[in-house]
Structure formats: C-alpha cells, structure tokens
Amino acid sequence: MTVADAIRAAAERLSATSDTARLDAELLMAHVLRVSRSQMLLTRMRDQAEPHGAAFDHLVSRRAAHEPIAHLLGVQEFFGLEFAVTADTLIPRGDSETIVQAALDTAPANARVLDMGTGSGALLLAFLYETPDATGIGIDSSTGALGVAAANCEKLDLTGRAQFLRASWLEEGWADQLGQFDLVLCNPPYVEADALLDPDVRDYEPASALFAGPEGLDDYRAIVPQLGKLLVPGGVAVLEIGATQEEAVGAIARDSGFAVSMRRDLAGRPRALVLR
Length: 276
Description:
Blueprint: H1 3-14, H2 21-33, H3 37-42, H4 53-64, H5 69-73, E1 75-78, E2 81-84, H6 97-106, E3 112-116, H7 122-130, E4 135-140, H8 143-155, E5 162-166, E6 181-186, H9 199-202, H10 218-223, H11 227-230, E7 231-240, H12 246-255, E8 260-264, E9 270-275
Helix pairs in contact: 1-2, 1-4, 2-4, 6-7
C-alpha cells in the first residue's frame, strides 16, 4: 500500500466520526513520516510504499474513537505559533485568537500581563511573542497544565519574560503577592453543566476547564469582581465568552463598575469582552 492509498483508506474510515477526515488522515500520516503535511503533499512521497502501517493504523483507530487530532500530534497551531498540548490542557482554538488580537489592540507595548487559567499558555505566550517589551504571569490550578505552559514558554524562547504559578481564583488570597497588571487575559470555564458536547471535547479535554455551573457563568461571577484590584488605573481585561453570553457576562461586568465592549470572532460570533 502506498502512502496515498493509506491516506485514502483512513479518510474513508474517519468520515463516520470526523468532519475533516481527509485532513486528519493527512496530518496523521505526515506525523508518522516525520515530515510536514505540505512536504508530504508537495513531493512524490505520497506515491511511495507506506513504511509505518502499524503506527499509522494505531493513530487512525484512536482518531476514530474521537481522540482529538491535537492530542495525537501533541501540538496545536495558535496565532501562527505551535503549542504543545496534552490532556491536562484545553486545545487552543482559532476562536480564542480574538482575545489575543483584542489585547494587542488595547494594551500598552510594555504591558505587565496576567493570564488567568493559562492552560497551555497560548494566550499569554502569543501576546508576549508579539510584544517584545511585555512580561507576564500565567496562573492555573492544574500542575499538569503549568508544566505544559512552561515547556511552551521555553520552546518559544520566552522564559525570561513569563512565569507560571499555581493559583485558583476560587481560593482566598490567591492574588495577594501578584501585584497589579496592565492587562488581564482570561478564557475561563463557561460551558453549561448539562451542555451536549462533541465526544472529542467531552471525553478528552479537562472538565475543570470547561464547565461552570448550570448557566456557564459561575467563574465569571468569581473572576470579574476581583479584576478591580488586579488592574492598574487604566488597565484592561479581555475575557473570552461563549457565543450566547455577551449580555449575561456584560451585565456582571457593568455591575462591577466596568465599561464593556465586545469583539467578534472570524465567524461573526461574540467572542471577547473588553473591560475597562
């Protein structure tokens, strides 16, 4: 069987469980061959005999069981950068690039940044990568996630400008030693407890980073009232929201004294609230 034959067969198998079956098959094959997808597609490699059938078949079987492609590859692209991801972190998604862009548009170039619930570190590290004079702290309640974030920081050569600490905004005094920030970033849990999620998300991504009570608002109610003491005068917070949460989260923010503006993602859905 050639590489092309194996990809074709895998795509047919994955079509029952993935909306991107052909892409998934190509990415998995490139991973097994240890080349980029573009290298594989632009060379005659696809006509060669497929030398790693067992390894490829194993990955395809895992993908057929809904395991996310990012977990199988171990990486996910975000804001033009490659981030390691594991089951300890949410997979960075293109929708969340809205938060980074809103931050770049509103925060000073030498901002001191706090990323609440940093996960893989994607929001903080993408912002720092684009703003060479900025520094930041990422917090997370998961030690596993903090390890992933620290590794991504080192990979991007940002070690001297970012640090990662274990902290939870639900614990009293968690921010007492952190000081104040020009910019706070946060992609909190915001999924309703009874929401129906795709198996790729429900079964493989950390529930603690997804679910936030019956309305998906519990963490906003905990976070937003604390932002005033975290921000310097004139500081800004950028929060990711679910596509239907603009009004509810905006009300929480205005009740805490913030002026609120909204940013949409590339699909035109409400995705970020900017709080001043």
